[in-house]
Amino acid sequence: MSGVTRVRAHAGWELRLLLRNGEQILLMFVIPVALLIALRIMRGGEIDVQVPTVLTVSLIATCFTSLAIGTSFERRAGALKFLATTPLSRLELLLGKALATGALAALSFAALAIVAVVMGWRPDVDWLGLGAFVFLGGGAFAALAVLLAGALRAEAVLALANGIFVLLIVFGGVVFAAADMPPAIGTAVGLLPSAVLADGVNAALTGGALPVGALLVLLAWGTAGALLGRRTFTWD
Amino acid sequence: MSSIPALVIEDLVVRYGDAVAVNGVSMTADAAQVTALLGPNGAGKTTTVEVACGLRAATSGRVRLLGAEPGTRAVARRVGVMLQQGGLYPTARPLEWLEYLARLYPTHADPSELLDLVGIDPSTRTTTRRLSGGEQQRVKLAAALLPNPEFLMLDEPTAGLDPLARRNLLEALAGRRDAGTSILLTTHQLSDVETLADHVVVIANGHVIAEGTVADLTGANDAMSFTGPPFLDLARLAGSLPGGFRAEELRPGYYVVHGPPSPQVMATITTWCADQGIMATDLAVGRRTLEQIVIDAGSEPS
Hints:
The complex is a heterodimer.
Chain A: H1 3-20, H2 22-43, H3 47-76, H4 79-83, H5 90-118, H6 127-149, H7 154-171, H8 183-189, H9 193-206, H10 212-232
Helix pairs in contact in A: 1-5, 2-3, 2-5, 3-5, 3-6, 3-7, 3-9, 6-9, 6-10, 9-10
Chain B: E1 5-16, E2 19-30, E3 34-38, H1 45-52, E4 60-65, H2 73-76, E5 79-82, H3 94-102, H4 111-118, H5 133-145, E6 151-155, H6 163-178, E7 182-186, H7 190-196, E8 199-204, E9 207-212, H8 214-219, E10 223-227, H9 234-240, E11 246-251, E12 254-258, H10 263-275, E13 281-286, H11 290-298
Parallel strand pairs in B: 3-7, 3-8, 5-6, 6-7
Antiparallel strand pairs in B: 1-2, 1-4, 8-9, 10-12, 10-13, 11-12
Helix pairs in contact in B: 4-5
């Protein structure tokens, strides 16, 4: 019985429960597709810009909102506490969660990409750049999700994770780019993980120059979230 | 019966900030025996169990479970745990939950057979959050039994169970014990303890106040008790009693006279009360019940 077996078992378990949850499906698939259609209707052209925006929304929904809410309710139910008494270590649990979240993000990405291609999207993909931004961006948001879920009551996490999600999408440099905001506000917004992720995903899918510095910002958010989460996370 | 300790706790202290939850608990749970941890709410039972299964760190003290540090993987695969609160994925079905858990252990029982054993239909598609409280308890018990554990820790295992399910559970636990499993359980169902426990540890205010077999605890304190107005002058009562007898007020208005009961001593107590103009009520003679021991534990000064 190896650690790999336990991580795979836990990843499969998480994925199975996530895919069964209607709210998760709504958050990760239905809302991003609806957003893409809405953007197409409201703004017309610019599908090359709109698809990366929606993919960023989907990634934040999967790696932050959904993960934070799911983990907080597992914590409230005592499920994580029970798992801590089994041979599954804390690291294996987190790796399993990360794998399941990554798989879900990939499924969500693929579904959205198919819808977008049907709508006429023809991306110029920098796969390495896209991979780097998705990995570091998803990791940063996942760390922030665990930070939130491990320290607050489930009801508070539910409200906060949804509220922060909407704020980040609307005012966090995703739907409206930080560069288009007044300079003082734009500079601050440009340091949010949502804004740098949106910039990076956009650049990686449109053949633009990759904002390499943005990767460092994501790394900093992820590291800070993980270190704080490690200090504040409790089983119950 | 073996007397090798499966769990050894020495001078355990657990603090939450300024609050002391466990204040110097020392106890053992012998192999292939059922050890019951009793005490009033807030006594420190659950905290002690959580330290013993590696969920919580001790502020100080030493804990050895099956000869090793609690919480390590080597120990976790040999131990089954049933938490007092929670421990289930609300959206999971019982069988899939156990099948997932089975993949975490090197050896395990058959999940379907275990669910049958605890009276849950393995084919049910009902998620655990829609099960009744008693059914959830049974699924939790099945999860604790899944790894065929050498040591079982059960925090309030019979809470919410109907009488038949409770009897079945007690029989199942007795069977496990007879097959060599060591069991530590906390419960407020004292009849369960009288039925099952080989060894009882009573804690109050974070420390052990009594331990032994049920017979030791209920029989060792031959006593007479009565209730009356609080703060009686017990020195004067003691002066009226034969040598070797001792009187104490365990909680306001509840008095215990320690010593072998006899008609003469009972008469002395009631006469003394009458002389004080006091009506002694709830006069009781003989062995204390476990319930009385736990009630007395709740009256222990902090």
